[in-house]
């Protein structure tokens, strides 16, 4: 007793703190699978041979690429419950771009909550060395882990996870009882001979305390399908074990889309189709001023009302042949076969490709999409060399366009991708929608600055509203995933609704 009183008052607090610190990590008991040397050898053998293996709570399947499922990963139910509780108490941030929409926690690398810290130590300690042994690879102690909450309409679209240093991806599910009809499955894709994803061949339904892991490779394409349940939360921990990356073949480049010059059609086509308001020269000048100011404009009620109604009706009722456009790591929507279009839809297509329309667009935008356009004032120097150069350029650069008639329904989207960024150029985008659409369905077009997440502009589809956007080499665009709300609209309990649009790109 007297000895203790000789201690300096703050000394006892220090020891107490140390003791507290020692107790603050709750040890995570892992499944006995990890302790079994014989099983580890068997898994290693199966993984290297790319064969199926199953034993107790562990299953290894190599189709469409090697992935391993370990049920009852954590040995204690109480630990799992406490881990869930700690995770749900974290701050989550809404994350949304072309590829995903979900809520993510702050980085878990330095979190000190007992069960989070305990799981982190077990995963990147004992389990990492077990996994390294299975793969025959030295995995680094790099900690890369976060927590995600997926709720109604949240999604993570098709991607391969490849990033320098990532060797094995993992997901630990901490979900309530879950069925495939709830969505949120982990979908695995087959790939073609160009290492491009083709179709989903396996869907793993989340299950409490189940760990899924797969090797990150040029063929490890997967997605988290959209969550369809409105009253459950898909909580999971995910991250990567780092190590030497697998060799990657050169990225496949797609053939460029065919571009065509205008069709020789005169202004009678415009008089027949376009709202006369837009054919007024002084109004065109007003539009051009506004467009040159902001590089974008929406022209409402663009087509004559009866023409718009006729095309809308035909799109809904006609026997048009639609083909799905992929691959899913770049896009997923349907495009019409032009030779199956009914007459009025075909005529609308011709309008957008006509010489008269190229000239009209020039008047709206000030771009030189027709040789009759006045040149910029700067170009009016009467220097003969300049004139000759311009003549040569004119021969070389005939304004051209390419276009599609698209159909968007639940599950459609486009993604930003490397090939697109490499090929970006100055262009005028045109979209003319036929729809009865709400902005919370998705299906809107976002423009973003290359290499940056910042959205520059969002164009929402609006009936008979012609959207024009001029983009430069640093601007990319994507169409946001069309979510479940589009097919479960309470005002219209009929089948899934679709958005139709003409999408054209014009080049000077």
Automatic annotation (TrEMBL):
It is found in: Cytoplasm; Nucleus. Residues 141-243 form the Fe2OG dioxygenase domain. It catalyses: [ribosomal protein uS12]-L-proline + 2-oxoglutarate + O2 = [ribosomal protein uS12]-(3S)-3-hydroxy-L-proline + succinate + CO2. The keyword Nucleus applies. Its cofactor is L-ascorbate. GO terms for cellular component: cytoplasm; nucleus. The keyword Endoplasmic reticulum does not apply. Residues 1-20 are annotated as: Disordered. One of its GO terms (molecular function) is iron ion binding. One of its GO terms (biological process) is regulation of translational termination. Keywords: Cytoplasm, Dioxygenase, Iron, Metal-binding, Nucleus, Oxidoreductase, Vitamin C. Pfam families: 2OG-FeII_Oxy_4 (PF13661), Ofd1_CTDD (PF10637). Prolyl 3-hydroxylase that catalyzes 3-hydroxylation of 'Pro-62' of small ribosomal subunit uS12 (RPS23), thereby regulating protein translation termination efficiency. Involved in stress granule formation. Monomer. Belongs to the TPA1 family. This is Prolyl 3-hydroxylase OGFOD1. The gene is ogfod1.
